[in-house]
Amino acid sequence: MRKIMPRKAALAAAAALSLGLTFSARAEDQPNLPKQNWSFYGVFGTFNRPDLQRGFQVYKDVCSACHSMHLLSYRDLGGGGAIDGGIGLSTDEVKAIAASVQVTDGPNDQGDMFQRPGRPSDRFVSPFPNEQAARASNNGALPPDLSLIIKAREGGPDYVYGILTGFKDAPAGFTMNEGMYYNETFAGHQIAMPPPLSDGAVTYADGTNATVPQMAHDVVTFLTWAANPELESRHRIGVKVVIFLVILTGLLYAVKRKVWSDVH
Amino acid sequence: MSEPAWTNPAVKWIDERLPIFTVMRHSAIEYPTPKNLSYWWNFGSLSGFMLVLMIATGVVLAMQYTPNSALAFDSVERIMRDVNYGWLLRYIHMNGASFFFIAVYIHIFRGLYYGSYKTPRELLWWLGLIILILMMATAFMGYVLPWGQMSFWGATVITNLFSAIPLVGKHIVTWLWGGFAVDNPTLNRFFSLHYLLPFVIFAVVFLHLWALHTAKSNNPLGIDTKGPQDTIPFHPYYTVKDLFGMGVFLIVFLGIVFFAPNFFGEPDNYILANPLSTPQHIVPEWYFLPYYAILRAVPNILFIPAKLAGVIAMFSSIFILFALPWLDFSRVRSARFRPLYKWVYWLMLIDVLVLGYVGANPPEGLYLVIGRVATSYYFLHWLVIVPLIALFERPKPLPTSISTPVLGGAAVASAKTMEKV
Q1: How far apart are CA B244 and CA B241, in angstroms?
Q2: Is pLDDT at B393 greater than 70 in this prediction?
Q3: CB distance A252–B247 less than 8 Å?
Q4: B145 with B67: CB under 8 angstroms?
Q5: Using CB atoms within 10 A as the burial measure, which of A234, A259, B18, B350 is most buried?
Q6: Does residue B404 register a pLDDT over 90?
Q7: What ipTM was predicted for this assembly?
Q8: Which of B15, B230, B242, B328 is catalytic?
Q9: For position B257, what pLDDT does the model report?
Q10: Candidates A44, A46, A83, partner chain B, best to mutate (most B CBs within 10 A)
Q11: How far is B408 from chain A (nearest CA, A)?
């Protein structure tokens, strides 16, 4: 038995090393992202409801002018259903938000499309009818859909936060293309999106001071929820599952010892 | 083995007409198993468990998934958002592929260390390799189904490999695609095959087990069992040992599922497939990285273009293993008694890990050099080093039976001890 131990240790070390190498290799392409201390990180991570609601306000008042979130429905904001983690709004609040937009529906019995106020079951209304319209309004660039943006970028929340807070004046000697903006986080540092946030860009209902870092923090929290609406359920169930498995495995080990006690 | 007397009349009635209970009793309860199997022997049944779990979650996911290039991506997100526990099913299935490969790779490397491919287990080894190849095809096609950027471009790169075949390559690729690019027909047939192949795997697993139960299990000493004193019945000894191992495995697996479900994934696959925009680095899933490194390491060889040479090398890297029972003709199975083979075994494992590391990086500069050295060593190992060691190595003396060292508490029993027994 003693002879086997170093071999096991060597194998474990090799496996850990290979995983480590693989992932450090992927991280190489990334600029050094400032790491934020997100509330949703970790085994017990959750979203702060006030952050989520402020973040939704930033999306609604600023981002949604150009960026769609076509995978979300207004009802998701209230939670319930298959995934229970909404952003903490009541049913009436969700209805009011949905009713504030106009949705194209139809055809009616005359064969015509018509506009009606939104319902909670409607998907978030996109700012542009199609990709061509979006590009035509944005200097040829396509503002990406934000439903999954946190999962779709290396670095996730830190990356999106880095983009939102990364607008600077271009350093001397840096040649900027027409209609582009300097961003220290974006690959190549030239981004087609104008700086979306400026101090006081939104007026928070709860009186929070709307600085750029505050708004970036809030909207990234909201976008992380939008990309992982199951996150809180997942963490809650996961803790129970792992505790259960640890106890079960401990019992199985005891049974194994007992059953094997007569084998020599 | 005596005929079991079944007391339950219903069981007895069935068993006299179709002896399923007798067969199950022989192969899952009484099956005489060497009593010295280590925890490395857990990974066979773990792989079987993962196969069943993948089929179970996959069947349910298929009820909600739409294999159409315009709808597939959003239908997966619908599963994640609007289907009850859809996120759990999908994350189990997605990470299950990785953990299936982890279990199978450990299972294979255990076989390599203890010589489980040697006579009389050659067919058992072949069937295992066939399972591996089928798994790779299934995993590759499954990764295409969410129709993200990496799905699309991975499918494009891998199917394009067939264009390296002289003369007919281009036609074969068009035939595989069902069109002139990876598109809806490709997605449809990949979905169909992704649903079919796991059942083919299941059938080959059945043959694998049949062959196992005919040749019986190998063991850490690599010597044959000499009689009942060397074996214990599978149940309850190995059922409980396998269950305990499964508990440990599930803690790690479900820990990833619940707390880092995208750990093995590529962010690019959360972007809808776009034929007009190629991702900066097209990387396969981690379990394909060593093969990917071999594919990209090979340069032009004489009149063979690099692409064709790379494809040949990549496929050979697995097919070469079919010849292993004859390349390694040493009669000693377990590396415990093979002082030289033991060392090159670990070098081979390191070589595969290095290939995996290279496969995750762009094929340029130092990575390309390391990739070429590691690829050369890979083939050198199987084709030259292993046969030479089989020829020149002087193995340590083998214990005379499993019971002897276990009773004596020493790994190597001297002949004197044996005489006393």
Answers
A1: 5
A2: yes
A3: yes
A4: yes
A5: A234
A6: no
A7: 0.90
A8: B242
A9: 98
A10: A83
A11: 10
